[in-house]
# Entry
Amino acid sequence: MARVLSGVQPSGDPHVGNYLGAWMRWAREQEAEHLYCVVDLHAMTVRFDPALLRERTLDTAAWLLACGLDPDVCTLFVQSHVREHTEAAWVLACVASMGELGRMTHFKEKSQANDFTSAALFTYPVLQAADILLYHAEEVPVGDDQRQHVELTRDVAQRFNHRFGDTFTLPRATVPKVGARIMDLQNTDAKMSKSLESAGTIRLEEEESATRRKIMRSITDSGSEVRAAADKPGVTNLLELFAAVTGAEVADLEARYAGTGYGDFKRDLAEAVNGALRPVRERHAELRRDPAELEAILAKGADKARAVATSTMATIRERVGLLPSGA
# Structure
């Protein structure tokens, strides 16, 4: 069983694309060797509001639990609760080079998009390397935008191992199994966004009436035939959403709604989406009403993660010549 680490940044408002594209699959595939980390420290690399960061960190954890992650099976924790992340990042920063960090596409894009560029944004990949290497993660499921960071993590780990002795497991980036790729309901050229206000994004935390309204007002295409086709991106997107929340095949949905027009199709889709999200939304609300339960779950997860991270950090300290704590 491979050890797998996945991180979620607590930024923006989670939407149905997050749930169908990744979180639902995480819940289905979770195992004892799977770690899920709410990476709040990474969210601080750009301008942030402290109160909002705190709220979103709790909220993200609550959504992951509501989507089905079981803290008795996997390990769910908050990055900043395990201080070894920042300690390991400092040591790894002494091994990484300015040149390779400067080549990171993520840094170039983020620095151009913001009026303030923090040093932490530049060293973001080093902290990410610490996140991965502390737990001897063998697999890191990432999108194309993060693959470069995992490759850097491998390079830094190899360099450290060569200089100080075998310490780190070399991780590999894995392409997640393709979940539903749901596009914006008003612009099928764009994915649903956590950060942008859009009438085409179905947010997990919204009233069922809002979800219904967005689906009924979603863009379709010329004609009234409910079928998936390259020249019908709007309807195709809705069919894929319908299939994702019900488990039905697109072809079966096409047959079911042949000759009915968009109105009935959209009404049924809205009911299916709300039906699928209802237990998730209810569980999330329960967790947010009981902060003690949520905090206890996160504390337990941090303890499990810390047991591994502390052992790894002790080895790192010994390898690089740092005095034992208390010496």
Notes: Strands lie at 4-8, 34-38, 75-78, 139-141, 172-174.
